[in-house]
What we know:
Number of helices of chain A: 16
Oligomer: heterodimer
Order of helices and strands of chain B: HHHHHHHHHEEHHHH
Distance between the termini of chain B: 9 Å
Largest interface: A-B, 30 and 29 residues
Structural class of chain B: mainly alpha
Number of domains of chain B: 2
Strand content of chain B: under 5%
CATH topology of chain A: Cytochrome-c3 Hydrogenase, chain B
Helix content of chain B: 55-70%
Shape of chain B: globular
CATH class of chain A: Mainly Alpha
Strand content of chain A: 5-15%
Amino acid sequence: MTRISDRRLELRHDPLLTEKVVYSVGPQHPSLPAPVRLVVQADGELIERVTPEIGYLHRGVEQLCARRSYAQCAALLSRCEWLAGANADYLVSAAVEQLAGIEVSVRAQWLRMLVLELSRILSHLFWWGQLGLEAGQITAVFWALREREPGLDLLELLSGHRWHHGWIVPGGVRREPPAEFYGGLARFSGRLREALEHFEEFFSDNAIWVNRSELIGTLNSDYAQAHGASGPVLRASGVDHDLRRDAPYLQYDRVSFSVPVGEYGDVLDRYQVRMEEMRQSLSIIAQCVEAIAHLAPTTGGAGGPARSAGEDGGHGGSPHQGIEVPAGEAYIAVEGPRGELGLSVVSEGGPGPARLHLRSPSLYHLHLLDELCRGYLLADLFVILGSLDIMIGEVDR
Amino acid sequence: MPQDILLILVRGVILVVVCLTAFAYLTYLERRVLSWFQWRVGPNRVGPWGLFQPIADGVKAILKQELIPRRADKVLYLIAPIISFSAAFTMFSLIPVGERVFLTDLPIAVLVFLGLSSLAAYGVILAGWSSQNRYSFMGALRSIAQVISYELGLGLALMVPVMIVGSLKITDIGNIYRAETWHPAYLFVLLPAGVLFLVSAMAETARIPFDLPECESELVTGFHTEYSSLKYAMFPMGEYMGMSAMCAIAVHFFLGGYLLPAIGGVDLTNWVGLIVGNPDAVWGPQEGYWTVVSLSALGLSTTLTFVAKTLFLILIFMWIRATEPRFRYDQLMQFGWKVLLPAGLVLVFLAALFVVLMPDLGGGAQSTMEVSMYVPR
Lengths: 397, 377
């Protein structure tokens, strides 16, 4: 807070009496996916400082989870990371399995991987369309949603839900994919492969876009690492780090895929890393399908929900409501679409966690904005924001 | 004299009615065209093929609550949309749409047109300034800079055909390909000038990729963020009319106006006459009653030709809107000053060279620039 006398002194040295302008971007703004407020201090259009103000979407999810069963936790957490809800399901299931010492069949692990990669693609597609809107390219979002739709239909076929699936459960997955799932998946992959080529025409081959993204919002690798960046944002800055390869979970050590790494950490690099990730995910999905085809679905091969003794084993009701998890602590992390999504669970025994904390990549990325935007123009702020792919539901929980 | 005034009034009313309808259906067309690009259906619910959608939109705009920000400069705030809107309409009154179908055909129409296209920007600037909103203000600032920069390219591009024809009258320029002074070598400067004009016109009317004054993803909706109801609707109206006027001018200056080429001795210009058997087209010039018939057939065919050409250009504008991302503000300025302005200067220089050298090249007669004062009869 500057004192008025200081302010006057400042003005006296400035014969034109120019003032810095403060834009309050949000909490409601056409480019913001969900409520968050960015206080942008600028000299005309030149940004000097960006202060994110969060909390508009706070729902107290972590506190709620401390009083709910694990199944309910998964449902709540998937509403934090709504574009790839399967990640939350997996995190909770893996935490329960680790604490309770439940073995998951190999086949179920492949199935989980398949769905996680599918969610990554769907999330990235949404990001791609959003980025188009931020850059003033109004057609991209519709093309992205058009390709995304069959993917959502696949998840609906699998679990009955399009966004919040609850299909990955402690012990395995809720049920075998129906026979038509694999055919649909093959069609979806084929179409998307072609579509991605067209998508490049919108941005990578467009001079206006390249001018707007090249060397804009550069993030150097030291700053990125020091401030907890992860996922595509970190990799675009030249840090070759991917949890799927460096700390493999599920069956990721048995598939081959490359990890795209950027050079300058600018908007264009982040864009290209994500585009390449979609192609890599498609290849992982193909490998998953092949592996699953070779593993016969034995009884309970898909895992099936873990149940405590005495439960009726019927199909109604919450599948693992009655599960007793021994006391302990667990931290599970996955390479989510936006970066390292981690879940820390403290159990004191009983059907639900005593304390639960979500490590969300978006929270870290949102606070990179100040560093990324300083010295760039107001117009760049939105493209940079788009390139970070921030999920507000994850920032405010 | 009173008959003259009455005639002008009637024509004016016709112009306003036609323009308003055209505006309404241009919004419909744009929504439909954009939705084809975007794998959507577009408005198809109100009436057959959604054709009543513009009417529903208009009624909705009128019935919305009027809000005036408390801190706004009320007079300027209310005047701004009127300036934007009326400048665009006046622009249209300058443009002949067919043989003998026009409201005015001023000998200095080009100058008036350029003046009006700058005046339209005042609406934007005042709207942004008076709203007392930072987004609006920023939109207004961008608009000032943009209009000043791109007006240069626009004016220079228009100078090329003006120099070739040697007149500032739009019908003369529309006749450019049939003028005495015409020579095919002029195409080397005329075509680049046409491209330059279209790009500048896109920036002047602030359409994607030059829509920085509005810029939805950055400035909410830019200069008209604080406007509501009919006042809000007047800005898009002005914008669409401005865009159509720019396309219409481009048709006159670069695409041969409302005329069509003559192929194999048959002048396609009077194609309605050819189809329905206009005596003029079939038996040569007529007298008496038949003159009226042939003239109206000529008026109809030229008007339809003109509308078709203009629509073609408008569709190009829509196509570009659907496919291009937006420029950044400083890149826009650089593009205007470092690319378009030099290109325009070079074109004007070349055109001047051509005009001076053309008699030696065996081309048309040397044209002389005559700007006479408009004296109403």
